[in-house]
What we know:
CATH class: Alpha Beta
Structural class: alpha/beta
Number of domains: 1
Pfam family, one: DBI_PRT
Largest sheet: 5 strands, parallel
GO molecular function, one term: nicotinate-nucleotide-dimethylbenzimidazole phosphoribosyltransferase activity
Shape: globular
Bound molecules: alpha-ribazole-5'-phosphate, nicotinic acid
InterPro entries: Nict_dMeBzImd_PRibTrfase, Nict_dMeBzImd_PRibTrfase_bact, Nict_dMeBzImd_PRibTrfase_N, Nict_dMeBzImd_PRibTrfase_sf
Strand content: 5-15%
Number of strands: 5
Family: Belongs to the CobT family.
CATH architecture: 3-Layer(aba) Sandwich
EC number: 2.4.2.21
Amino acid sequence: xxxxxxxxxxxxxxxxxxxxxxxxxxxxxxxxxxxxxxxxxxxxxxxxxxxxxxxxxxxxxxxxxxxxxxxxxxxxxxxxxxxxxxxxxxxxxxxxxxxxxxxxxxxxxxxxxxxxxxxxxxxxxxxxxxxxxxxxxxxxxxxxxxxxxxxxxxxxxxxxxxxxxxxxxxxxxxxxxxxxxxxxxxxxxxxxxxxxxxxxxxxxxxxxxxxxxxxxxxxxxxxxxxxxxxxxxxxxxxxxxxxxxxxxxxxxxxxxxxxxxxxxxxxxxxxxxxxxxxxxxxxxxxxxxxxxxxxxxxxxxxxxxxxxxxxxxxxxxxxxxxxxxxxxxxxxxxxxxxxxxxxxxxx
Length: 347
Ligand SMILES: Cc1cc2ncn([C@H]3O[C@H](COP(=O)(O)O)[C@@H](O)[C@H]3O)c2cc1C
Ligand SMILES: O=C(O)c1cccnc1
């Protein structure tokens, strides 16, 4: 386990307007790296395109790393943790104290993500946000003040190591699938039931209760529906805001991002709403079994890499995709070319 504190800017965003402006003016891809990768790909000893999505992953990595030979020498998993006032509405079978207990479990190496991080040879950092103080219950009031929201975004922004090759984002926060559902419903509309899943194990009545909670939140906050950042402040959570901040920092640092499940996708959805290119440096690592994730992925223009029926969070799906990326990079950088291996090219 390691921790990082290399600020990009010590206090990147001091107002929602600041943050909004940065979301609209993001750095673009490195097209010369993209061309170099395509050129080399065509020389490797395999039929063109035969490595399928691995070839797309290699190209994506290099394009956003701004490197004609992509590398994965330093992979970081960041788990942001936060608590949610909306748990008072009985939307999770687990109590808020489990968030703190799981943070300890991550630190002691006992969680699923610790095992997957080790298998994937990635460094894991756990970052509790707002000292795990719960947000306000967003059925009654905005979840966060503007200042608290920006503070959480800044924490995420300052958590991305500058020398990272790839960042995987994850979260821990009892009640956060309800925050994700409320934010998704406010951003994209549609029946609240379509965005409300079982989370950590709700039964059918629990899911209906959750959807009713999402409806109440929508009625309270819908007037702000043309401002994605304002919706994130009102219906999101501290760890979701930090995930958004980390995603923005990664863009500025030329670090590609692997996103985890439903909660992570909801956390970054405002970036897509503000800017259709806002998530171009991210890849959705998996499709969570949480109801609503496939729909949300489509709404933000992301295609999940894996689909393993997982619905854990913690960045577990993102971490599982690392070995696939490592294989893609190894093939691209270490395979012999036709001329090196004296293999006759197709007629
Ligand atoms: C022991 C345990 C470990 C977890 N690891 C991730 N989550 C996941 O479940 C929570 C969201 O589900 P809900 O909205 O239903 O509360 C988040 O903390 C998420 O990361 C966990 C949940 C539990 C109980
Ligand atoms: O997909 C997720 O992000 C998820 C699903 C269930 C519980 N926690 C997180």
